[in-house]
Fold:
Amino acid sequence: MGVAGSGKTVVGKGVARRLNWLFLDADVFHPAANIEKMKHVIPLNDEDRTPWLRALRDELKRLLKQGRSSILACSALKDSYRQLLSDDVSAMSFVLLDVDQETIRERLQNRSAHFFPKELMQSQFASLEKPKNAIVIDARKPLDEVIYRVIKAI
Structure:
């Protein structure tokens, strides 16, 4: 979990590959209306996010019923979002990829193949409620080190 540009996808894919787990990218689950809002530099609100979070939770529950372990790359910025995601999902851990605003600004300026505009960065930091019971990893470190730390922590 973390703000846009924190490395959720690249770290999540790396962890999933090393553990031989399934990787899920929450962005794929966004309805078209959410993507359009973000493309037009309109921050999502709780009403936009709730059906998306429910769909993610339902997918996690489905995979667990099948006995499959997974890594979900999802912003999960607020405590209420994390509660909704983990409702009836056993053995879930949250890993916060912690990054400062300047690093995110640089990363978003250099990212081209994503629908999330850098102009929404501030709204992500404004919404972020740092979890009290999550694993916190400094995501400014080199990628291999971040992946290693996540695997060791989980």
